[in-house]
Design brief:
With 280 residues, this protein is an alpha/beta fold. It has helices spanning 36-42, 61-71, 84-93, 97-112, 128-148, 179-191, 196-206, 234-244, 254-265, and strands at 5-7, 16-18, 22-26, 45-50, 74-82, 117-121, 153-157, 173-176, 213-218.
């Protein structure tokens, strides 16, 4: 895989070092827009859990596949594995087995690809799928370390918070876009028709210039996410409102669904990472 350049933690994008082999791991297609220039520079494998179909049953995978091709990145082995409805049904069912399987597969893929640095969605309490796949990623990173002794960089980026949040934190990786890079990023975002409304709302809320900084924050909470919330997460409030209107029959909750999943992922199910091409 071709490599370009990436900034060291705490440095601007102009201070470049040889880039590590990278992977991006996100819950839904379209999240990669927040790190468009990072994609251009690092050309990672991009793993996407769902097809982004939501309640409309319309996949966004083709749009993400085209965007990755323009940026020089490539889809990973996990790419639209579930529909959104399948993801939410799995969370409501409380069955951690499919999430364990994803973590094991992802750990094997990161090992097979020789990944040194992985980036994924932040836990923000906005969408339970985002937070659940972050738990899967953290479990995969930990399992990779346990099985191989390899420690890889594990970073997150905000999807709902301001895109330049944490820019002053010396522990963060900051990538500052020049006007041409920002123009390419904004053009890519506006061309992604399935998320056009979200893009325009984010631009109206933050302003275009906020997207000229891409932030990677080091992840240090592992599977301990309870302390990240001062109150009920946003997705519980939305779920309750939709349950009252009869849209949902059940509500995905932090304490009933996400924290038990985190606790279950804390216990590995298999003795070794399976490598592609290895015998049974």
């Amino acid at each position: 895989m071709a490599r370009s350049a990436a900034p060291e933690p705490g440095h601007d994008g102009e201070s470049v070092q040889p880039a590590p082999r990278s992977a991006l791991v996100v819950a839904h297609p379209g999240h990669e827009l927040r790190l468009y220039h990072w994609l251009e520079l690092n050309r990672p494998r991009v793993h996407v859990l769902t097809d982004g179909s939501g309640s409309a049953s319309r996949s966004r995978l083709d749009s993400t596949r085209a965007l990755l091709a323009r940026a020089g990145a490539a889809p990973g082995a996990i790419f639209g594995r579930w529909s959104d409805r399948e993801l939410y049904r799995a969370l409501l069912a409380g069955d951690a087995a499919p999430f364990h399987a994803l973590a094991e597969e992802l750990a094997a893929e990161l090992q097979e690809e020789g990944v040194d640095l992985v980036v994924g969605d932040a836990v923000e309490g906005y969408n339970p799928g985002h937070d659940a796949f972050r738990l899967v990623l953290n479990a995969a990173v930990r399992e990779l370390g346990r099985q191989t002794g390899r420690r890889i960089g594990n970073y997150e980026f905000p999807l709902v918070a301001a895109p330049d949040q944490g820019a002053d934190d010396p522990a963060c990786v900051r990538l500052r876009l020049d006007p041409a890079a920002l123009a390419r990023k904004l053009a890519a975002a506006r061309a992604y028709s399935e998320v056009a409304g979200e893009v325009e709302r984010a631009l109206a809320r933050n302003g275009e210039q906020a997207f000229a900084t891409e932030i990677l924050r080091p992840v240090d909470y592992g599977l301990e996410i309870a302390g990240l919330f001062a109150g009920p997460p946003h997705y519980e409030e939305v779920g309750e409102e939709r349950r009252r209107r009869g849209v949902y029959r059940e509500v995905i909750r932090l304490r009933e669904h996400l924290l038990p999943l985190a606790a279950d992922l804390d216990h590995p199910h298999r003795p070794a990472i399976a490598r592609r091409g290895a015998g049974a």
